[in-house]
Amino acid sequence: xxxxxxxxxxxxxxxxxxxxxxxxxxxxxxDGVTSVCAMECNPDEWGIDVLVSGSQKGFMIPPxxxxxxxxxxxWKVYEECKHPSFYWDWKAYRKSVQADSTPFTPAVNLFCGxxxxxxxxxxxxxxxxxxxxxxHAMALRSAIRAIGLELVVKEDKNASHSITSIYPPEGIxxxxxxxxxxxxxxxxxxxxxxxxxxxxxxxxxxxFVCDRDVISAVGALEATLHKLGYKFELGKGVATAIKALxxx
Length: 248
Ligand SMILES: *Cc1c(COP(=O)(O)O)cnc(C)c1O
Fold this sequence. Notes:
Blueprint: E1 4-5, E2 10-11, H1 14-23, E3 29-31, H2 43-46, E4 50-54, E5 66-70, H3 72-80, H4 90-98, H5 108-124, H6 126-146, E6 163-166, H7 174-185, E7 190-191, E8 201-204, H8 211-227, H9 236-247
Parallel strand pairs: 3-4
Antiparallel strand pairs: 1-2, 4-5, 6-8, 7-8
Helix pairs in contact: 6-8, 6-9, 7-8, 8-9
């Protein structure tokens, strides 16, 4: 299952789902690509059997490294598995990790970046980092509501803290919003994917993001919508974001 679902901006209740999965004797495999380093994700406490993440999202570095945590239950399944595997053979990795190494040539350049990123993560503290993502996502969500746009994920408790999906106002297209905000303000917002393409746009608060980014992105969005002819109380989104950040 996916913890923070990037195409919709929904967060799954992994803790509850894992306890149900455990009751049925199955193994849980969690995609934590946009939740690890952004939202609380506690494999031991929640009973996640396998947790996977990647370098290109919460870890703030380019793509190319994957991280995997597996508990004893998962290792038991591994031991009993009859499918041959070479590249994905965990045993080779476990053996190498114990020797502080890797079984194959790793992407050494990315390890240099990772070293710095981990230093930053340690300095901020993972709890503070999670809290920052929540604060930014909630400020963005309240700003979006304040300018009268509809959120794909209605309730805050079900929302990802990494990405927020938004419906465009009636009569204004997602490609027009994306093009204008990029050209006028150099702000990138993502389109929807597959069935949601051109139906929603997505704003990220993942990784190396600060209050200024949230305030300026909301301001850029307001100016974009104003230019495209959407009628709303100009400035209300920015004001709401600033207040939410001050209180959060
Ligand atoms: C980005 C992402 C991935 C990895 O997809 P890539 O196309 O390899 O970047 C996996 N799961 C989630 C939830 C993601 O957001």
